[in-house]
Amino acid sequence: MDEPALAEQLAAAQAQVAQLSEELEETNRGVLALYAELDTQAAELRHANELKSRFLAYMSHEFRTPLGAIQSMTRLLLDRLDGPLTAEQERQVQFIHQNALEFSEIVNDLLDLAKVEAGRIDVSPGWFDMVDLFAALRGMFKPVLTNPQVSLIFEDPIDVPQVFSDDRKLAQILRNYISNALKFTQRGEVRVSALRVSEDGEDWVRFAVADTGIGIASEYHGAIFQDFSQIDSPIQKSLRGTGLGLSLSKRLAELLGGSVGMHSVPDQGSTFHVRIPLRGAPVGDATSS
User: Fold this and answer.
1) pTM for this prediction
2) How far apart are CA 279 and CA 174, in angstroms?
3) What does the DSSP 8-state code read for residue 186?
4) What is the pLDDT of residues 186-199, one digit of tens each?
5) CB-based contacts of 103: which residues, under 8 Å, 6+ apart?
6) Under 8 Å CB-to-CB from 253, ≥6 apart: which residues?
7) Alpha helices, H only, 118-264
8) Which of 26, 187, 269, 287 could form a disulfide with 212 if both were Cys (CB 3.0 to 4.6 A apart)?
9) DSSP conformation class of 202
């Protein structure tokens, strides 16, 4: 091949390399711009999430004072301290009192969720017995068991010694489970159990709350532990709530180093469970979100 032909090929190759270099540089500039945009969006998302958490915490605190006043006044009326009530007056005051209690529970869930998201919730582990935990829960729910067709049963814990965890956070998870089970079970039973299991090379305690209620369709299973998730059913529509209880339970379980799950069949019932380590401090930083 003569020298002019080699020079022509070399020039063509150099031109191609220059073009590829220019395209690569342009791609790099695009990638850098994309990274910068993603960083900006991430910062905006963090700021929005912080504002949401601050708003929830602020509003929750502001709601507590009037709610406490309403509950106190209705309690005084129901205790007849200011005189007798007619049957209709008692029915209306009971209605106000019950609504105030439900609203208070929603406010507490909002406040706890805001604390978790802001990384301002503390985990205080200690040793406790399952028998004591179940006894406290049994006493807590005894006054609200108003449906004679539903039984709340606490099974004796199976092979569960003392547990090292935050019993208050665990009780809050189980309270949410039991409250939901009672709300959506019109007849039958709600059964609470605790079982020691060995999984992943560690010892765990698996708590379960099983009911004979309406059950949950499979299309909702993936979203049931997400914020504001609710079941689309006639019973659900007739009951109030934010759908925050299960989401909060999931986050609390994670703070305890555990996990949550569920199994449900429509018209047959649901079982919600939470698994926590038998011994040892919670995984990771207890104050992180």
Assistant:
1) 0.65
2) 19
3) S
4) 999 999 999 999 88
5) 63, 67
6) 173, 259, 260, 274, 275, 276
7) 130-141, 167-183, 234-238, 245-255
8) 269
9) E
